[in-house]
Amino acid sequence: MIDTPFNNLPKIHARIEAKSKEIDFSMPSDLHIGSLLQTLIASKPNSRFLELGTGIGLSLSWMIEGMDANSSLISVDNDPELIQISTEFFGEDKRVTLICEDGSVWLKNYSGAKFDLIFADAWPGKYSEIEEALNLVTVGGFYVIDDMSKQENWPVGHEDHVIKLLDYLQAREDFKITTLNWSTGVLVAVRSN
């Protein structure tokens, strides 16, 4: 099977992509992971979602497109410029809360309700504070990470972090794991108990 063209791009996607080029943002998200997030979120009406690593808001736009009117989403990033840009795009959406804070600090201090999907697209929640992040996933909820396939821009030694993380997640008995050699390398986990 070949990937089909994307006919489900978020309405705001082109504007965010243009802003990304304007500020020379070097870590835009892949269209495939965006489409997957939109689909997974659409399967969870009246739910709560968390994105760790807002970036410029490309993945966030896909996530919002998948949400129903009764769902909510928190997105956390430590870069005030990127949060400001994302606020310009999404600040009017009452379902979305944008937080400018170090993800590690936020995960350690968060004491609210759990989430039906967490997309960890930053170091915190993926390579650090993994336990805190996984503890926030509801039973039946998704934990999604990308960038698991080797990439040219990885620093020396990063592949060891990826292997260690994959081994750790696959050894857990409270999550069912699927790895996909697709997009940038995706892992989808569902909390089973």
From TrEMBL:
CDD domains: AdoMet_MTases
Keywords of this entry: Methyltransferase, S-adenosyl-L-methionine, Transferase
Pfam families xref list: Methyltransf_3 (PF01596)
SUPFAM superfamilies registered for this protein in UniProt: S-adenosyl-L-methionine-dependent methyltransferases
Keyword Methyltransferase set for record: yes
Molecular function per GO: O-methyltransferase activity
Swiss-Prot/TrEMBL GO biological process terms: methylation
Name assigned to this protein: Methyltransferase
Organism per entry: Cellulophaga baltica 18
